[in-house]
Amino acid sequence: MKISVAAIPFFLLITIALGTKTESSSQTGGKQKVVKIQLKMGGPYHPSECCFTYTTYKIPRQRIMDYYETNSQCSKPGIVFITKRGHSICTNPSDEWVQDYIKDMEEN
User: Fold this and answer.
1) Does the keyword Signal apply (predicted)?
2) CA angle, corner 38, sides to 71 and 10, nearest 5?
């Protein structure tokens, strides 16, 4: 199998950028070497910090303790409300009730 000489530095850069960890182990007398590559989560943002879907119902205001906006690097904008029980609920920032809750929390 031929690998382009230009492709090798590219794969090395990708490996370094993604923070890979390599492990080598020998099998039966050291004749065959197996290399395992484990990829870590790339970047500082985890999927739990982005909203992929929004709740379809209005959350009672008295159940909400706090909120935060999702990061601008997420594929969809979102407001995450934190409930008294510690649940995180993704909401659509353009919904009127979401804007009302944010305004209410900012004033108090």
Assistant:
1) yes
2) 80
